[in-house]
Amino acid sequence: MKKFFTFLLISTFVLVQAQKTKNSNQTIKVSYSKSYNGKLQENQDNIWIFSNSNETLITSENTILQKSNFPYEQTLVKRDKNALLQITQLKKNASTSTLDSISLEKQSFEFSDETKKILGYNCKKAKTIINSNTIELWYTNELNVKGAPTVLGQNLGLVLEMVRNGNFVISATKIEKLKNDSPSNLLAKTTTPSSIIDGLSYKDLVWKSRFTSIPVFKDEIVNFSSESKSNDSIFRFANGTIIVKKVTFPELKKGELVFLDVLEQSNGDAYDRTGSVFVIPEDKKQSFFDGLQNGANVLPIYENGNGKKYQGVVATENYSPIIELMRFFTPFGIKQYNYIQLKDKNWHEIVPYRMDISELKPNLSGKSLYIGTFIGNYDKGGHKISMNITVHPSESILDNNTISIPLFNTTNVMEMAGQEYATMFNHEKGLEVTFTLDKKVKNAQLRYITTGHGGWQNGDEFLLKRNTIVLNGKEVFSFLPWRQDCGGYRLFNPASGNFNDGLSSSDLSRANWCPGTATNPIYIALGDLDVGTHTIQVKIPQGANEGGSFSSWNVSGVLIGE
Questions:
Q1: Distance spanning both ends of the chain, measured CA to CA
Q2: How far apart are CA 265 and CA 350, in angstroms?
C-alpha cells in the first residue's frame, strides 16, 4: 500500500509537471495597431507577435498571410541564447539573415510605480531614451510569456503598449492562445533558408534591396587627352572631357522618387571646373548626339544679334537640347593634392553630390537614353567620376508632373570641341526660345539652373547679376543668384591655396555656385499654359570683356507641369 501511494504521488507529480511544460510552451498571439496623435494609421499592416517560453516571433499580418511585398523582415527572439535572429525575405527564393547576441543585453530601463490595465491585464511601466526619443513600455507578467512588438523590451514581460515621444503609439488590440504553430515553425513557413552573415553586411543588403539601383559610371576618367578612346559601353568625346553611356530606365510609377549620386576626385587637375550630368533626348529628328559625333556646328544655331552663333542651345521644331540632371563644380584638387599640409586641415578624400531628379521622370520612364557627364578641363589626368541613379518606392504627394519639356541649355559641354561659350546675354535679347504646346499644361513651372562665370575681379563669377524670366512678353520672375556658403567647403579644396587676407579662393562667394558643390534648380511658377505657341526669354546684364577675359552664363530650363 505504501509503495502504491508513493507511485501515485510520483505519477501525479510527473503529470502536473508535464501539464505545466505543455502550458508554458503554449504560443500566445498578440495583434497590435499603430496610431499617431490619437489617430489610427490608415491601411496599416498590423504587427503580430507569436510568443512562448522559448521564443518570440515579431512579424506582421500581411507577412503571415503571405500578402507582403518584398523585401519583408521578421525577427525571432531565441530566449535560450538571449539573441535576435533577423531574417529578410529579399525576393521569392532569396533571403538573408543575421544573429545578434548583443542588443538585448545592452537594453536598460527606468522603472516606474505607475500601473494600468490593458486588455484586462495589469501592466507596469518602464522607460528608456534612444537617439533622443523617449519610449514608454507597458508590460504584463500575468501571461507567463515575454515579447514585444519591436526588439525593445523583449525581456521585460509581455509588452502590450509602446509610446514614443507621447504621440506615436503601438497598442495591443487582441490576445489569443494558440494550440499549434510555434514561432519558429511560422517563421519557416514564410521564409526560405539562408546563411547567417555579419550584422553590418546584413543591414547593407537589406537597405539596398528596398530600392532600385541603376549604375552608370564607376571610377571613369574625364580628362583632356588625345588618348581618350571609346569602348563598347562608354563613348568619349571632346578629347575625353565628355563621357556618355546608354542607360535603360524601368517604368517609373507615380509617387516614386528618383535620385542621382555623383562622386568626384581629382586625377591630376587642380582647379575648380564646371561639371554637368545630362540626358540626351531623342524625341525629334535631330539630337545632341549628332553634334557629339559630327561636330557642334551640325546642331541648330541660335543667334540674337550680337554677331555670334550658339550651337544646340535652344529647342526647335526638330531638335531638343540636352536635359541637365545636375550642375556641379569640382573643388580644387580633392584627393590628388591632399599632400598639401595645413595645420588643423584634414582634407576630404572624395566629394559627393546628390540630387532629387524626380520631376524629370517623364523624360526617363521606360526609356533607353544616353546619359553623359562633362567636366571642362585641359588636364591629361583630369578627374575621376562615379555615378549611380536610384529609384525609391514612395507615395510622394509632390509627384504631380506628367509633362517635362526641355527648352534651353547654354552650358557648352562641347567646350573642348568648339561649342561657343554662353555669352549671348551681352545683348538685350539675351536668350529666347519659342515652343508649341499641343495640349494645355496645368501648374506649369520652369525648372531653372543658372551660374555666372568670369573668374577675375570684375567677372560675373564674383558679381551679383539679376536674372529675369519673361513669358510671352511679360516678366514673371526676377532674382539675384548667389552663394554665400562657399567657405563651408574648404576641406574639399586642398589646392585652393591661401590669400594674404586669411581667405582662400574656395571661401569666396560666387554667382550661384561654390567649388565642391552642386547648384540646385529653382522652380519658377508660370501658371496654366494654353495650347499654342509660347515664348520664354532669359535676360541677364552680362559684364563686358576685359582684355582676353570674358563673362558667360550657363542656364538650363525645362518646362514641367501637369
A1: 95
A2: 5
- The pTM (predicted TM-score) of the whole model is 0.89
pLDDT tens string 276-327: 999 999 999 999 999 999 999 999 999 999 999 999 999 999 999 999 999 9
Residue type, 268: G
SS (HEC) of 504-527: CHHHCCECCCCCCCEECCEEEEEE
Tell how far CA 105 is from the center of its chain: 34
257-266 sheet: strands from edge to edge? 212-222, 383-392, 257-266, 351-356
33 vs 39: CA distance, rounded Å: 11
Give yes or no for a contact between 283 and 276, defined as CB atoms under 8 angstroms apart. Answer: no
Q: Are strands 274-280 and 323-329 parallel, antiparallel or unpaired?
A: antiparallel
Query: In order of start, what are the domains of the chain with their CATH numbers?
Result: 24-206 (2.50.20), 211-561 (2.60.120.1570)
Nearest residue to 371 (alpha-carbon basis) of 215, 232, 517: 215
Q: How far apart are CA 385 and CA 352, in angstroms?
A: 10
Q: What residue spans of 209-314 are helical by DSSP H? A: 288-294
Look up residue 548 and give its DSSP letter: T
Burial profile 81-99: b = 16 or more Cβ within 10 angstroms, e = fewer: eebbbbbbbbeeeebbbbb
Taking CA atoms, 249 is separated from 12, 219, 560, in Å, by 71, 21, 19
Q: Which DSSP letter does residue 249 get?
A: P
Mean pLDDT of the chain: 94
Rounded to whole angstroms, the Cα distance separating 190 from 184 reads 10
Q: 3-state class of 157 per DSSP?
A: coil
Q: Which amino acid is at 526?
A: L
Which cell is 470 given?
A: 519673361
What is the spatial distance between Cα 557 and Cα 435, in angstroms, rounded to a whole number? 13
Q: Quote the CA–CA distance of 351 and 226 in Å, as a whole number.
A: 27
SS (H, E, C) 56-71: EEEEEHHHHCCCCCCC
DSSP state, residue 79: T
At 181, the pLDDT band (50, 70, 90 cuts) reads confident
pLDDT at 188: 94
d(CA 56, CA 148): 8
Q: How many CB atoms lie within 10 A of CB 440?
A: 14
**Sole residue written with cell 499641343:** 438
Say whether pLDDT at 8 is over 60: no
- 159's CB contacts (< 8 A; 6+ apart) are 137, 138, 139, 147, 148, 149, 153
Alpha-carbon gap, residue 339 to 326, rounded angstroms = 30
The x, y and z cell numbers of residue 338, run together, are 591632399
C-alpha cell at 267: 586625377
More confident residue, 19 or 435: 435
Q: For 79-110, what is each residue's pLDDT tens digit?
A: 999 999 999 999 999 999 999 999 999 999 99
Buried/exposed 293-302: b ≥16 CB within 10 Å, e otherwise:
eeebeebbbb
pLDDT more than 70, % of the chain = 96
Q: Residues 49, 63: contact at Cβ < 8 Å?
A: no
- What is the rounded average pLDDT of the residues 433-441? 97
Closest CA to 376 of 489, 504, 246, 241: 241
